[in-house]
Amino acid sequence: xxxxxxxxxxIFLALQLVFSSMTIAESYDVKEIESIFKETKxxxxxxxxxxxxxxxxxxxxxxxxxxxxxxxxxxxxxLDLQSYNDIYTGNLPDFVDVIKGPAKIGNQIWAVIxxxxxxxxxxxxxxxxxxxxxxxxxxxxxxxKPYNNxxxxxxxxxxxxxxxxxxxxxxxxxxxxxxxxxxTDAICFRYYRRALYSKxxxxxxxxxxxxxxxxxxxxxxCRNDKDLKAYLQNQLQxxxxxxxxxxxxxxxxxxxxxxLLDDTKTNxxxxxxxxxxxxxxxxxxxxxxxxxxxxxxxxxRSVLYSGAQIMGEELDxxxxx
Length: 321
Hints:
By secondary structure, this protein is of the alpha+beta class.
């Protein structure tokens, strides 16, 4: 009995250690918050508005809902804050909705972000800058109308989206004519899908502008060019097996098309609008002429991107639903 009692005691102590480490990872003191805001400010200072002509140094409200605390990088009388060096803290007011995204508090738009944040510095700054970009989107005419992309759960939409992604992956890995052909293939696959769901192209565009550009901006400011390319390639593998593409496809497609545009050294961001199709802008930037029979070309080229295997995956998914 003593032997088993020792074993159970060891398990109990091990579990206590695990739970205590989880608590430490998810709790913050004011100095940690100050350090996080300094990281954000440094990234915004380095960009200095060059990417979009507007700084992302916006009011950020980090919310510790469990402990009823808030932390900000800007002062606000409405929030009844106390200063701590270069940041401010206070109690969570009843009128603040703890939902990630832009929120108007007083006369300012705040990026509201619930805690905890990722432990990794780049990942947590990407979260903050993504939401900061949402705050400035209306000012740079990139605030789209509502969209609904439920068609992205249908088998054929997923099939042609995956083909578009595979072609974009090849474009990321290639140079010269191979890269240009891969981009052409991606756009052909994209147009084929949109021909099947002709009323949905506007919604896809708006999602890619809204969330895709926010994600591109965050990753662009937090990573160098080499690391950004590697991140995008890894991101495809992460999304590939997603049970639903409805609310996630723009987080890959948008940043990849933007990355490809950056390679052209054109000032495409200054002309981007909330209703634009970013793939059409890429087509123009790379001087791509689409084939006369685009749909036949798409079907023939799909073989080069494991089209049969992808269709098999989607048929299996359809049967399992």
